[in-house]
Amino acid sequence: MSALALSPATGAVLKAEFTLFRREPGSIFWIMVFPTALFALLGSIPSFREVGESIPGLRLVDVYVPIAILTALLMACLQAMPPVITGYRERGILRRMSTTPVRPASVLSAQMALHGVAALVSAVLSVLVGKFVFDVALPEQFFGYVVALGLSVTAALSLGALLSAVSRTSKAANAVGAAAFFPMMFSAGLWMPVQTMPDALARTMELLPFGAAAQALGEAAAGDWPSWSHLGVLALWSVLLTAAATRWFRWE
After folding, report:
1. Where residue 5 falls among pLDDT bands split at 50, 70, 90?
2. Whole-number Å distance between alpha carbons of 177 and 164
3. Which helix (H) or strand (E) holds 27?
4. How many distinct structural domains can be found in the chain?
């Protein structure tokens, strides 16, 4: 895999895919602008900037930084990436690539790298807006935050790869991505932060990848090492989703 990543063919594919990605203002907006803009909009609500009883010692704007980060990940990996990959398959591009030095796996790797990096850029923007606009403290357990974020990215990309595997066409990928997006965003806490959910519902959400991600990022932001149970849930989902994507993915 490392040889593939360093090959001239893979580098050429990555450069070409990056050029195409830059020409998609819709993807750039929804991945890199929308999550931070939504976070800024919610943060402008006065009640979001006040410490309430539902989350002792925290404001809602503090809690919504991880949610904005997870929104960017889901936008990139569920809404943007699968239609591109399935579109390549649908038009026979992957099949034709299989007869050249540029292997289809290079396209998949390039797409995952581009969308993962775009989501991370959005994550940095959300953290900076939180810090300099709403005085949200930077993550106190920085290394733990990086570990939780890395596992969150892996889980999101694995889910996106699975959707790409099971979708026959780009239209199907859009439909499946939309169907998966809203439950995942609910589990991440967009409509109701996991910390404010009833105990039974919160425990259920923590078994899902993005519910666990929201909790792990929140714990690291507060200065604690993320719970091993939350990190374990993220790691387990990453392995299961990757295995399923590998099992069902077809180049034609």
Report:
1. very low
2. 9
3. helix 25-28
4. 1
